[in-house]
Amino acid sequence: MILRRINNHLKTQNWFAISIDFSIVVLGVFIGLQVQEWSQDKATSKRQEALALEIASDLKQDLQNVDGVSEIAAMRFASAQKILNRVNGWSMPNSYPCEFDVRCPLPLPERSGPKSASDALFYSMRYVGLQVQRRSFETFLASGDATFISRPGLAGDLREHHAMLQRWTDTENLRQYPTQLSLNQAFARHGLSVNDQVDWQQLDAIVSKDLELQGILKEVAWEATLQYKYIKDIRDDTQKMITRIEKVK
Question: Is the pTM for the entire model greater than 0.85?
Answer without folding.
Answer: no
